[in-house]
User: Fold this.
Amino acid sequence: MIALGSDHVGIELKRSVMELLKEKGIDFRDYGTYTEERCNYPEYALSAAKAVQSGECERGILCCGTGVGISIAANKVKGIRCVCCSDPYSALLSREHNDTNMLAMGSRVVGADLAKMIVDAWLGGVFEGGRHAVRVAQIAEIETTGTIKMEISL
Ligand code: RB5
Assistant:
């Protein structure tokens, strides 16, 4: 199950993502916004991110004008690693190296077709673990303790 969220600027791009998910037979839940009326993106970032945090949804996809604001907001939720990106390569690597559990894109930055390629790449990426797992664990340590005490051997 994929959690979806957007603001009014990202809603059309979110609809394109929904189309792709339907084509691929992937279930999703839309946490809003549901209309073109002006709204504040952090509220929808929070709802979708909480769904991922709780395990209700495995991953989430967010859209706003640039993808920036909504990703920053999602990344404030503990356990969320949201990548804001506009190319399939970064989307894939964000899964393989950073174990991202949310993806954010900007409707003013990417068109529908590119967004679909980004989503495809991101959904297909598998976390490689190993040395990357140590780094992701360090990110979690910063989140929990505000610093890094964990020793790493490279
Ligand atoms: C809304 O005007 C716009 O600021 C928002 O969609 C997003 O781009 C924020 O990062």
Remarks:
- The chain has six helices and five strands.
- The radius of gyration is 15 Å.
- Strands lie at 2-6, 28-30, 59-64, 82-84, 102-106.
- The chain has a mean pLDDT of 97.
